[in-house]
Amino acid sequence: MKQTVLVTGNLGYIGSVMVPMLIENGYEVTGYDCGYYKDCYLTDSGQNLKKQIKKDIRDAEAEDFTGIDSVIHLAGLSNDPLGEFDPALTEAINFHATIHLAETAKKSGVKRFLFASSQSVYGISDTNNDVNEDGTINPITVYAQTKWKSECELKKLISDNFIVTCLRPATAYGASPNFRTDIVFNAFMGYAFTNKLIEIKSNGTPWRPMTHIRDITAAFIACIEAPKELIQNQVFNVGTEDNNYTVRQLAEEAKNCFSATELIFTGEHTDPRSYRVSSKKILDVLKDYYKPQWNIKKGADELMAFFNSVNFNADTFNGYKCTRLKSLKKLIEEGMLDESLRVK
User: Fold this and answer.
1) Does residue 303 contact residue 162 with C-beta atoms inside 8 Å?
2) Which pTM value belongs to this model?
């Protein structure tokens, strides 16, 4: 009998890649999404779902989890700019709703709850060393703080019949039907493709760990398939053996993909976020289940092909569809969302 997986945020950037991969691996998938970004697709989503629940995670009910074996929780306000837009709402959606969702899932008989945390919980770290899961936690943004608080609270729900695993993906990149350009490497590739110019307001020295969205998905699938003793009450950094890049290295990789592209570092802003992260734990503990396949060069080639396939241009790059904060502001201005970011 096929295992049924509920994916929150299935209509988002990662979810739109994750759902087809889960289905390809033999899972039945129920989607759970309030629809913030349902009109942002650049190409068909290809989600052959068992069921789509259109609902805010703040309103989760026991009946939503009937017949569900595992939950992958992706939904939330998904980056630092969104988190700072309204810190109180970020707390309500990313923290309180996450715990409500997990508590409701547990009461409903769900066996595994896989939480998409973030490596941004490390904040500023010693960049001479790659921080592991036991490293110092130093979340410096509201978004990162809610991820860390959620991890701590979720662990209190663990029982013999309820597995909780927290995955901390590196910064995502790669093609998706619901594409984003408000994340660093996708942005650099988009600038190069549409403008032949990449302008960076820092000096390019901060470090960023990076993971392709298909490798992120593979890590979640690994945690569905691995035995309980390998994943119960575990935290995993999600990445590859060599997943740390400076902002300069990422920009240069994007520049090299497109001839006559100019790269400028203005140095006018200082970016306090800089961290190198080790993914050794997941590569060792889940070595029979998690086998990442991607690197920046392969991802750059994929993005070039994707841009051409969807006729990507400056209007798309600068518009609302690929930037989460612009998307939400547009929905608010059009009266589609109320002041608490609930869909009307």
Assistant:
1) no
2) 0.95
